[in-house]
Amino acid sequence: SVWALELLLLLRSRPDVAWRAEDLVRELRASTPLIADNLARLQASGLAVQAEGVWRFASATPELERFCDQLAEAYQTRPVTLINLIAAPSQVQDLADAFKLRGEDR
Fold it and tell me: For the whole model, what pTM was predicted?
């Protein structure tokens, strides 16, 4: 979702900041359940870590780090194109499937 993208890019842009969930809610002007759900998804995807009640960007692999770099660049240079891709479910699913990491492939 666009919310997940915004959250990921915010965490990534300030990796030295330890974010409390309520600070992310305020920063992104989002709801608590929305932020909590997306933080859990980012954590499960290897893109964020939680420790002592705070969250940080943390890429689980160099490949994810490079993908996040490319994603940030695309969002900075072509935000409308990226948002349109996210809004088109079939195209987004194809893109996600192309980058899906399976347990046995790691």
Answer: 0.79
What gap in Å lies between CA 87 and CA 56, rounded to an integer? 26
> Are residues 21 and 43 in contact, defined by beta-carbon separation less than 8 angstroms?
no
The 8-class DSSP code of residue 29 comes to: T
pLDDT tens column, 77-105: 999 998 988 887 665 566 667 766 555 44
Four-point Cα dihedral 62, 64, 14, 20, nearest 10: -120
Q: Give 24-39 pLDDT, tens digit per residue.
A: 999 999 999 999 999 9
Six-digit token string for 42: 């980012």
How far, in Å, CA of 93 to CA of 100, rounded?
10
- In angstroms, the CA 58 to CA 6 distance is 15
Q: Where are the alpha helices (DSSP H) in 1-106?
A: 2-13, 21-28, 32-44, 62-77, 79-87, 89-99
The residue assigned the tokens 């960007």 is: 57
